[in-house]
Amino acid sequence: MKAAPLIYSLAKEMLGEEDLDPQLTDYLGDIETFASLSHSSIQSRQVVALALVHYLDRSTLLNKITSLEKDVERLKDLKD
User: Fold this and answer.
1) Does 1 reside within a domain?
2) pTM assigned to the model
3) How many domains does one find in the chain?
């Protein structure tokens, strides 16, 4: 069985989690895939930390956008 890339264990350690959210796992997997395309692998805590910050910021923004879209729909319903 092939060992999981280090990027996953570093992310778990940094977040203090036993398991990663499936979307985060996919995101980190994409990063590792692109590293693999250049015959490399993510072996840096700094890269993983930046990836986590970006992912968490993106998740927060997507949640805010979804909330705003719901607010707009409610306002439209009130107007009708």
Assistant:
1) no
2) 0.73
3) 1
Q: Are 20 and 28 in contact (CB under 8 A)?
A: yes
Distance CA(8)–CA(18), nearest Å, equals 10
Asked whether residue 65 is domain-assigned, the answer is: yes
Burial of residue 47, with CB atoms counted within 10 A of its CB: 0-12 exposed, 13-18 middle, 19 or more buried: middle
Chain segment 4-62, per-residue pLDDT in tens = 788 999 999 999 999 999 999 999 999 999 988 988 888 889 999 999 999 999 999 99
Query: Which residue's entry shows tokens 């993106």?
Result: 58
Buried b vs exposed e over 17-44: b needs ≥16 C-beta within 10 Å? eeebeeebeebbeebbeebeeeeeebee
